[in-house]
Amino acid sequence: MAIRHEVRKGGRSVYPLSSICRSLNQTERYFVLVIVFLLLYSAILGEAPSEPIQIGSSTASHIKVTVPELAKTTTVTDSFLSLTDVSSAENEDSNLLLENMYPQFSELTEEVERIAKDVTFPSDRDLQVIFLGLKNRPLWFFSPRKHGYEAHKFNTRTLARFENLGFMFSRMKSNAGYYQAFDSWVCLLKYYCFDKATYKLLESAKGNTNRIFGSKEIWSTKLSYCSTLRESLRATTEEGREWIGSFTFMCWILPTNFAALEADIASSNGKYIVKPAAAQAGEGIYLHDVSTMGLKGLKGRVMRLNPAVVQPYLSNPLLINKKKWDMRIYVTVTSVVPLRAYMHSKGFIRFAYQNYSNDEESRTQKSNFLTNLSVNNKLADTNDLTWVFSELREYLGDKAAFVFSQIDTALARMLLTSEKGFRKFYDTKVSTNFSCVNCYQNLGIDVILDDNLTPYIIEINGNPTFNFKAEKLNDEVSQLHEDTVRMLYNNVNIFKDSSGKNDLEIAAELMQDLSAIATKDDNEFKWLTHDQISYLVRSRREQQEMGGFRRIYPQARYCEEDVDENQWIAFMKFLRFSEARLRFHNLLGRLEKVRVQRCLRDDIQCSSEIPDKCNLKYKGESICNIV
């Protein structure tokens, strides 16, 4: 076929339609007319092509879905909707695809897509991390944290050291553009590397920082932990004391709460453990037996400490090989308003050096009642004073599932107690729309069991030790850091072995789960706020690569008549959560149930609590059979 006519316009060759038609022979003209006729016929009838439509390029693996099949995936009674791969889709095509799948949630779908895009890390470049410290202070556990990023090949591992905090804060604000370019800020100080203005500035960035603003004031010191408990759970009421006693120990800050402690001592006449507020590594801690020493002696010693935290001393601890022990549990909190938290499967237990004794003489020997490694390392090797969790599970046998599930609940209740405290702190210190959404923190939480296998939280460490004399413990925390980085930065193409997904896939999967659980009462989820949708998207992103983590809040609602769920509602109502927050809690539990169902069905997206839950019974049947 030769084209005889050519017109030059602006340096380009343009071929008039009349010239093209005249250049065709009779057979070619007939062929073009047939094609035009078929196209017009298809447009008039509005028929969809019968061949599968492939989304994206042919270079990747894709699931092909025909247009009529899309309507089937909107059935809300089916808990498991087939996943559609949109990893290489053009935005316009993908948006249309989701709208076709979920027409009843068109507004929600649009918002989910937009937020998913905002919170997804770029996949077209290497991620960058910056470590922040002060020149005149030790670099708190720099190497273990650095190794977590090195394992995932972050591009930049810069160590920025400043003269003082004021200089650090001013440099952050004056060079906001430079620091906002980083995807991760790792603070090497004990508490904060940012002031409230810098935290607010970073709120609009995608990167994460490893310090939750307000943690020092809410739960990571002895004083703040006790203060939050007493205020949130109204410790002066009988019901409040019962809730506190269900997962931790009652506490008093002296001398402020001395009158309340005096009233408690009058009814118990037992032992109390006294902890100086500013002390660390077991320094200054002692036992006070009211039955032999009286209240006056306690008051005199405490007044000299000023301030101090006092707790009842557990009289019936579970012993292993005649020794007292407690657990160091690592919990990663990725949201505080609302709460979202994970417990890691790696951790260890610490033994006291001496065999446990409850007599009067033993109360003066710290190596009998304290498990701190800093105390007992002077008497024995760390390897002999510790077990890792795998050894503890082997010792507990078939009771391990029950113990760790109980610990999940205790940890979640403690952290949930702080949610309103964080909200109040942010409202007064920063702004009413600040939630520290870019913040996360690895906590070291100490837990002890009584001889009935009931767990009690002792305290929360906001900056736990990550350097140990025993390599087996260093291996445990190394896995914690690697899994933390992977969970927070699991975008597609960042890690070669990652199963992470892009923003459109995250949006599609979240919409699938929401449509699967939707009821008339949900009113098409029009009640969800922007912050709640953002929470759901970030939660969905994190669960792609949970590694050794198990989610402790939100937890799945396994049964419609689940007693534990009823207790959760009662607990949250006592905390005076709003009806909107309770409604969101209910939604989170239902979404978690879908995740568990998918895990049990396909053995995907699993987290470490699933085997434990499957070993538990509800009305004589395995929970896994119920869900």
Secondary structure layout:
Layout: E1 7-9, E2 12-14, H1 17-23, H2 26-45, H3 67-72, H4 91-101, H5 106-119, E3 128-134, H6 142-150, E4 156-162, H7 165-174, H8 176-180, E5 184-187, H9 196-202, E6 208-209, H10 215-218, H11 222-232, H12 238-245, E7 252-254, H13 258-268, E8 271-276, E9 286-289, H14 290-305, E10 308-312, E11 325-336, E12 339-351, H15 366-369, H16 373-376, H17 382-385, E13 386-388, H18 389-396, H19 400-417, H20 419-429, E14 441-449, E15 455-461, H21 471-488, H22 503-517, H23 530-542, E16 549-553, H24 563-574, H25 579-602, H26 610-614, E17 617-618, E18 621-622, H27 623-626
Parallel strand pairs: 3-4, 3-5, 5-6
Antiparallel strand pairs: 1-2, 7-10, 8-9, 8-10, 11-12, 11-14, 12-13, 12-16, 14-15, 17-18
Helix pairs in contact: 5-22, 5-23, 6-21, 22-23, 22-25
Structure description:
By secondary structure, the protein is of the alpha+beta class. Strands 11, 12, 13, 14, 15 and 16 form a six-stranded antiparallel beta sheet that branches. Strands 4-3-5-6 form a four-stranded parallel beta sheet. Strands 7-10-8-9 form a four-stranded antiparallel beta sheet, with helices on both faces. 38% of the residues are buried.
Describe this protein with a few key phrases:
globular; four-stranded parallel beta sheet; single chain; 27 helices; 627 residues; alpha+beta
